[in-house]
Amino acid sequence: MAHIFFDHNSTTALKPEVLESMLPFLVEQHGNATSRHAYGRTARAAIEHAREQVADAVNAHPSQVIFTASGTEANNFAVHGITSNLCHGQILTSAVEHPCVSRPALAMQSRGWRAIDIAVNIDCKLDMHHLHNLLLTPTNLVSVMLANNETGVIQDLAAVADLAIQHKAFVHTDAVQGLGKIPVDFAGLNVHAMTVSSHKIGGPLGAGALILDKRLDIQPLLYGGGQERGLRSGTENLAAIVGFGVACELAIKNLNAFAAHTQSLRDFCEAGLLKLGAHLFANHANRIPNTSFFAFPNIDGETLVMALDRKGFAVASGSACSSDTKEPSHVLLAMGIDADLARGAVRVSFGLSNTMEQIQQFLAALGNELARLRNLTAMSA
Amino acid sequence: MSERQPIYLDYSATTPVDPRVAEKMIPFITEHFGNPASRSHPFGWTAEKAVEIAREEVAKLVGADPREIVWTSGATESNNLAIKGAANFYAATKGKHILTIATEHKAVIDTVRELERVGFTATYLQPEPNGLVDLAKFKAAIQPDTVLASVMLVNNEIGVIQDIEALGNICRENNVVFHVDAAQATGKVAINLEKLPVDLMSFSAHKTYGPKGVGALYVRRKPRIRIEAQMHGGGHERGMRSGTLATHQIVGMGEAFRIAREEMEFENARIRKLRDKLLHGLQTIEETYVNGDLEHRIPHNLNISFNYVEGESLIMAVKDIAVSSGSACTSASLEPSYVLRALGRNDELAHSSIRFSIGRFTTEADVDYTIELMKSKIGKLRELSPLWEMFKDGIDLSKVQWAAH
């Protein structure tokens, strides 16, 4: 059975143009970019070209792009690196951050920092009043994601940055779920650091970047050969970086088409979900166009996800990274959603390859599965 | 891009991906693109299964249990994770002194320096002039508060092989955690972690015909070694290393290590013949010095200093072959190799050194060409060298009083 993939926020298929750009660098053009011979120089030129492509996609200067192995690494680098050079103080992260922002912040607690959550409202929007109050205590770093991976809600990062900078805090944003789905403007948002990732935009796994205001005195996460201006040691993952660059270029070229297409799929899907009795999360907030997060009361999300999988639909019950755990989504709990309802949460996230017909099939299959599961529940009650 | 590709003799900087490895990787870039942490659909399961098969292959090459293998983005990250992770975890119980060797890779040296910055102390033990560590000196350098020792199995610049078993036993006797950087060793020397007294070992894929951007850290289970995670997030790799796994790269590393296991014996014999031929050819040039012990050395490496030749002109003159002067990771700087300096080589000899590293795709014709090229280029450079002329006239250059400018 061919599977229909509705889980594009977890990872998305590599674009053919991206693969084509990568292949020569896997086999023939295999140099180490630090080497000074022709192989090394070819590798170096390819990396610098990709750096320009990434910079263009986020309105930054190429010299502001530090390549990492993943979004997770870039987030760890930002939180750890920005605070390490400062006197112990306070780190503020939104209560709905991805664990690769919130956990490094928590880890800094053992070294004397305070890590505090900034509250969000029922629509997953950051509580600016709470942020303001927290900033009255001297703060080193504020990290708020541009778009949430589960609900898709977009935060007003420019306003967050304004407020934080007024209070002399550095600002980092995890823009992994924003890139390719909404315009991402590093200079315009006026943040100090921003994380982006390759495999969420049709690039390969294995590349990410931290976009960095160079005035920032940041401590590396990895020490060694001194690559990436000494900020990220380790032989550059040449093929992945080349692919990331091309994926960035394509993501920007396709941005409007992606938004129009996935938004129409989502609108259609959500209308159908409502008819089936779904509770939609944060659907009144400004969201990235491809994401819908919902639950059916009294239906366990994990069970529903497995049932849909058997019918050929790949969807998620929360972020993939926490698919291992049975805890309800920390995002929904932070939004004040009841834990029972939160246990029912299912996320669908669409891509350019999805079609209206697939949504129709999905809604039909979902209707059947819901009826079956409700019957089972009624029988056991 | 139109420049002719030189002959590649820089396999210690990075290796091409073996075509068999690339073939295994490509389906995982295109069709099976799932996130291995996605538990709810087969896209994730297929990826996870492939990751676990690769983990077994990596474990098999080094005699480990698959559960002892933690994926990383490369040996640099493995070294950082091992050293910072173990030092921080055991500092409170064992102490804050770290013992390492002056000829380690920068990923080890600079990580230890960073730990010094946050309150650890460190000893950078000098090796013997042949590049090997003296066991008695190593033992004497261990202090009551030594928490961790880090020694590389194979040196990246001179290819010498350290006696890891003996060093590990000294660490065991003194209750010191022992980390080994084996990035340059896989597929070149046999490694059996069932027998070796090693607690942590770093691996890289792209030095063994796998892709760049993936590596692994071996973390011993019996007796169990604990490390503090350096990267936090989704709790991947049993909490030791978070971050979405690059499935295709891991698959590539597994396949590369499988090929290494099956072919290293035959391959090393072939490479040794080529290296010996290269060595004998180059030794016909006067005033050449092999750096590092020739016996305790991988067959792939030849590091030679050409006396009375200026380093930079040498590199420019031999651009038809791709080689390194010093390690690739530091060749952006004009500092003479710190590894050769640690062996007691003077600046001139360190500057005029070339590392030839031979690998899977090197042919006998490549070696013949290289020998002829070196003979002719060194000859020409020396014709232009006043120092060579003085040497030929029998003047002892070390006794010359140079006028200051």
The CATH architecture of the largest domain in chain B can be given as: 3-Layer(aba) Sandwich
Q: Nearest-angstrom radius of gyration of chain B?
A: 22 Å
Which strands sit side by side, in order, in the main sheet of chain A?
2-8-7-6-5-3-4
Output the CATH class name of the largest domain in chain B. Alpha Beta
Number of helices of chain A: 13
CATH topology name of the largest domain in chain B = Aspartate Aminotransferase, domain 2
Q: On the 0-100 scale, what is the average pLDDT of chain A?
A: 93
Strand content of chain A: 5-15%
| Count of individual beta strands of chain A | 12
CATH architecture of the largest domain in chain A: 3-Layer(aba) Sandwich
Count of structural domains of chain A: 2
Strand content of chain B: 5-15%
Please report the total strand number of chain B as a whole number. Answer: 12
Describe the structure.
- The complex is a heterodimer of chains A (381) and B (405).
- Chain A is α/β, with parallel strands linked by helices and 381 residues long.
- Chain A has 2 domains: 4-12 and 255-380, Alpha-Beta Complex (Aspartate Aminotransferase, domain 1), CATH 3.90.1150; 16-253, Aspartate Aminotransferase, domain 2 (3-Layer(aba) Sandwich), CATH 3.40.640.
- Chain A is built from 13 helices and 12 strands.
- A 7-stranded mixed beta sheet of chain A has the order 2-8-7-6-5-3-4, with helices on both faces. A 3-stranded antiparallel beta sheet of chain A has the order 9-10-12.
- In chain A, helix 1 packs antiparallel against helix 8, helix 2 runs parallel beside helix 8 (238-253) and helix 3 (71-84) runs parallel beside helix 4.
- Chain A is globular, with a radius of gyration of 21 Å.
- In chain A, 59% of the residues are buried.
- The model of chain A has no long low-confidence stretch (mean pLDDT 93).
- Chain B folds into 2 domains: 7-13 and 265-383, Aspartate Aminotransferase, domain 1; 19-260, 3-Layer(aba) Sandwich (Aspartate Aminotransferase, domain 2), CATH 3.40.640.10.
- Chain B contains 12 helices and 12 strands.
- In chain B, helix 2 packs parallel to helix 7 (247-283) and helix 3 (75-94) runs parallel beside helix 4 (106-117).
